[in-house]
């Protein structure tokens, strides 16, 4: 049970990082490193983390759903709890960087 929650937590953190990277890659005029430095200096790092957390929503519902089109799968509530914990950590990081 604990291993499944940790797995979901790590996947949630990874999804958050990938979401942040994809947002910067597609919508920022600078490279990822330059954008992260600028975000810390100018104070919009919390916004980037928040936008990256959108992928956690997809991952959360993927773990809770039991049917994807014609395919049936087992719901994974412990992994969904881990993703929820990663989302709460992202929310705390947003609060830290914004205030």
Task: Describe the protein's architecture and organization.
The N and C termini lie far apart (35 Å). The chain has 99 residues and is mainly alpha-helical. It has helices at residues 2-27, 32-42, 45-52, 54-64, 77-98, and strands spanning 67-68, 71-72. The chain is elongated and about 45 Å long. The chain has a two-stranded antiparallel sheet.
Largest sheet: 2 strands, antiparallel
- Average of per-residue pLDDT values: 93
| Number of beta-strand segments | 2
Individual helix count: 5
Low-confidence stretches: none
What is the global morphology? elongated
Strand order of the largest sheet: 1-2
From N to C, what is the helix and strand string? HHHHEEH
Percent in helix:
over 70%
- Give the structural class: mainly alpha
Straight-line distance between termini: 35 Å
List key phrases describing it:
single chain, 99 residues, mainly alpha, two-stranded antiparallel sheet
Please summarize what this structure is.
The protein contains 5 helices and 2 strands. With 99 residues, it is mainly alpha-helical. Strands 1-2 form a two-stranded antiparallel sheet.
Write the layout of secondary structure elements.
Layout: H1 2-27, H2 32-42, H3 45-52, H4 54-64, E1 67-68, E2 71-72, H5 77-98
Antiparallel strand pairs: 1-2
């Amino acid at each position: 049970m604990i291993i499944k929650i940790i797995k979901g937590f790590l996947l949630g953190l990874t999804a958050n990082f990938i979401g942040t990277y994809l947002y910067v890659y597609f919508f920022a005029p600078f490279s990822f490193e330059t954008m992260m430095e600028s975000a810390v200096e100018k104070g919009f790092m919390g916004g980037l983390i928040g936008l990256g957390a959108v992928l956690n929503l997809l991952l959360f519902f993927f773990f809770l759903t039991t049917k994807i089109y014609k395919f049936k799968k087992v719901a994974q509530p412990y992994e969904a709890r881990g993703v929820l914990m990663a989302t709460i950590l992202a929310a705390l990081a947003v609060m830290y960087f914004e205030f």
